[in-house]
Structure formats: structure tokens, C-alpha cells
Write the C-alpha cells for this entry.
Amino acid sequence: MSDNKVIEEEGKKSLNFIETIVENDLAEGKNGGRIQTRFPPEPNGYLHIGHAKAICLDFGIAETYKGICKLRFDDTNPVKEDVEYVDSIMEDIQWLGFQWDEVVYASDYFQQLYDFAVELIKKDKAYVDEQSAEVIAQQKGTPTQPGVESPYRNRPVEESLDLFRRMNEGEFEDGSMILRAKIDMASSNMHFRDPIIYRIITKHPHHRTGTQWKVYPMYDFAHGQSDYFEGVTHSLCTLEFEVHRPLYDYFIDLLKKDDNYRPRQTEFNRLNLTYTVMSKRKLLQLVQEKLVNGWDDPRMPTICGYRRRGFTPQSIHNFIKKIGYTKYDGIIDIALLEHAIREDLNMKAPRVSAVLDPVKLILTNYPEGQVERMEAINNPEDPTAGSHEIAFTRELYIEREDFMEEAPKKFFRLAPDKEVRLKGAYIIKCTGFKKDENGVIQEIYAEYDPNTKSGMPDSGRKVKGTLHWVSVEHSLPAEVRLYDRLFMVENPSEEKDKDFKELLNPDSLKVLTNCRVEMELQKAKPYDHFQFQRTGYFNLDPDSREDKLIFNRTVSLKDSWSKVKGKE
Ligand code: ATP
Ligand code: MG
């Protein structure tokens, strides 16, 4: 068997249940062998990592089976929608590496949907109700108790037709009337109890149709039909829509002209992450109340937040592949996502030196004014990545935490009379230190051993600790932003008796303003990735300027996922 064949066979074994459905449909020749999907966001917020899961599936299925995938904005509610969101959604999908075959909008079908609503009224399958939303909700009943029929339910068809037309002409106040489908107030499926299908909205122009329409279809009256109008074959969405499916099918059956085609909806589990909220409503609240610095705050679970934080599209793809698609809702450990970005950046990110909390180290026996260019390997995982130079001088910075005045036995870093290696340079021995009047260490003194230069044949002497460093003179000041989980509890959505905002982690952002980074980082461009030796993966923030470099910590080096699961 050729290598390709083996890969193919293995690929077959790992089909997810949706791919299996698609392959069966293809084998049966359903829909004339066509595969068409769509990604249907409502433009009322920025995309989050949960959406990425849906995107990878919708676009992925089309890609794998040579079908098409359209980007459809389900823009049925002008009160909450905005072009800002439309633009950001397109940018994020492309950043993830996907391209739609066409952009369409539910609003493209407003006329068709309106006509269909009129048709339903004519067939006595819809009526105008003049009760308030509260009363209608009260009459819904419960899953075990039938609902109460509206007094308007049996009004003459002509009357509903007339009122619906006038609703759309702006004659009535928002909320004063609605159009309901006339189905079954005793149905065991609550969505069949005369669902609202049209409402009046006059106070908010629509981002595309302006003030042309005064009535707007409800999501449930637009989604399934839009799939049908477009020719979608596989309508993939999250599990919460399973109970809506019979209603979508009901409308499609009334609309359908022939038996050769109908869209089929399949639901999969949504992505939930620990220490994260994923609802657009809640994310919007965080932004509006300035609890985070905008939608692209690197602590946000939005695609643009992850992008700014330094995640790569590849890491998100790998993560989504790992979690897969099932029929069971659950919550994924955020450590798995962090593991995916670590794995990807380990292969890609050049290693550089940065000292986040600097203290001065003076090599008293190193000639003043001397500069040595040490070779720093860019990436030991990637032999093609080459190396760069880092300047070594008499005065250096090291991390304050890498020195202890009185060190325990197991402390393999610097302490009086102890030896360490300076990474890529020499072995040094600490000879003393100086404190200020508050007892804070100001300077550390050491002597270097000229016979221990890294890479030289005679550098055979071994010491336990290796420290990173930068030259005082040949380094740049930088700000470094350290991020931690945005929420303190594992499942913020589960704490029903608390406002989710009370669960925010007060230490989710720590800004370090006195950092020093090696000169090589002068060349860094926004979003470039680096591994700061011994500390973690970082990227250059887009707000960074030449005179003020700003870095985001994407993720620390410590991989709690591998530790839990063992090496994968
Ligand atoms: P939210 O419920 O977070 O406010 P939404 O479902 O209202 O989001 P839409 O814009 O309607 O957001 O979602 C577009 C598509 O993305 C839908 O098909 C939906 O099923 C899918 N989707 C939304 N959230 C998730 C998630 N957490 N995991 C997987 N898919 C999701
Ligand atoms: Mg939703």
C-alpha cells in the first residue's frame, strides 16, 4: 500500500458522524449528489472560538466533498445588528483560512419570506394577534400542560391579511401586533404552539434594507426557509436547535415544490470552555461595560482576541480537530487549547531573550567596553530556522527571581558563591551583591570563566542552572502584558445565583513596564511570534511602537495538559 493510501484509509476511520451522514447521502445520490453548506452567523457580535468550531465544519465539509459553502448573515433583527459585526465576521473567517463561495443575507429573502407569510395567512395557517408579548408568553402553557388559544386565533383571513399589510406600512406601534403561525396550542413541542413569525420594528433601520420594511421575520421563520431558498443540502448547527428542527421542516414542507430536494439539518455539540463565557450577549456586556479592552482584548474568547493574543489559525484548527463533533454537550478544559498553541508555536516561534523583571548583573572581571557577539539558535525544533547574534557585555540584566541571597540546596540558579551558565555564553560565579536602604537588591556581582564559552571545544565543565540574560547597553525597554484566565471559576455559566461579572478574575491582566528585550526584537512586526527563553510564548502587540515595544504573553511554557494526560 502506498503512503497516500494508508493516510486515506486512516482518514476514513476517523470520520465524524456528520461526515458519515454526508458520505451516505452521496452514496444514495441524494440532492443530485450536491453538497452545499452555509455558515449562518447573526451579525450581532464578534465571532468566538465556538463559532470557529462551526466554521471548520461548515467550510470543511464543503472543502472535503467538493461542495460549496456560503456565508449567510442571519440578519433578521435590526435592533441588535450592525455592519461593524459583518466586517469583523468576514475578517475572522478569512483569518481562519476559509473562503466562502458567496456572501448572502437572510435579508435577501425578506420579500420571499413576506410573500410566504401572506400565503400562510391565506391558507388560514397564520393570524395577526393583538395581545402583548407577556400575555402570549403566559398562554404558552408548559411541556406538560397545553397552552391557551388566543382570542384572535380565529379572526377572518381577510382581517389578518389587511392588518399584516398595514403592520408593514408602519401604521402600528412596535409591539402592538404580531403575526403568529396557526399550528397547535397543545403540541408536545412548545415551538409548535402558534409561534410568533413576524414582528413590527420601526425604530431601528436595518443595516441593509434601511427603512424599507416595518415587519421582520423571527429567526425561526427565516433560518430554515433561507436554507431552502439557497439550496443548502446539509444545514449544520448546534444542539439547541434540535427542538426547532420540526418547525423548520414544517415550514419547508409548506414551501417545497418538488420531492427532489430538501435541506437536512444535523445538530452537533457546541463548544464550551472552562473559565470562559461564550455567549455573545455576555461578551457584549463585558465590552460595553469596559470590563475588558474591547472585543479583541487578548483575554476574550473571540477570534480577534485570540489573534491579538498570538494564537495561530493552525493551532485553532488542531484544537477543533482534537475535540471533534458529537451529540453530547460538555465542557472542554481550556488547557487543551493552550496545549494546541504551545505545540504549534514550539515549531514556529524563534527563541529570543527577554528579561521581564530585570536586576543588574555585573561581571567584574569582564573588560569594560568589550562586546562579544554570541550565536543564538533561532529554533532547536527547526534546523532551517538559522540563528541570530546577541551582544554580550560586562553589564547584563537577569531575572530578579533567578537570584537568592540565601538559597536552599535545590535552588539551581544564582546565589552567593554559586555557579550558573549564562545561556549561550559563559559560566559565571557570584561574588557578591549590593542592596539599597530598603533591602532591595540593586546589583549582583560575578566573575566569568573565559574558558567556558558555549560551543567552544573546551567548555566541558557542567553546572546545573542556565539563566537567560540581555546586555544592559544592547537591549531595548519593553512592556509585557501577562494574561491569566478571565474567570475565577471553572464554569461561570453554572453559577446561577451569581452575576457572571462577579466571577471575573481580578488578576487576569498584569502589565510589566520595565522589561528588557534583546536588540533582535527591533525588527519584530505586529503579531510576530517569539519564545522568550524560559518564560513563554509572546507576540508583538499591534499597538507596539518603535519607542515602546509591547508584547503579549500568548501562553506560558508550562503545559498543564501534557502533565495531566502524560506525553502525547
Ligand atoms: P451565542 O449563542 O454564543 O450568542 P449564536 O448561536 O447566537 O451565539 P450565531 O451567530 O447564531 O451565534 O451562530 C452562528 C453559528 O455558529 C450557528 O450555526 C451556531 O450553531 C454556531 N455556534 C454558535 N456558538 C457555538 C459554539 N459555542 N460551538 C459551536 N458552534 C457554535
Ligand atoms: Mg444562539
Q: What stands out?
A: The chain has three domains: 17-268, 280-350+478-567, 354-468. The longest strand covers residues 509-518. Residues 1-11 have pLDDT under 50 and may be disordered.
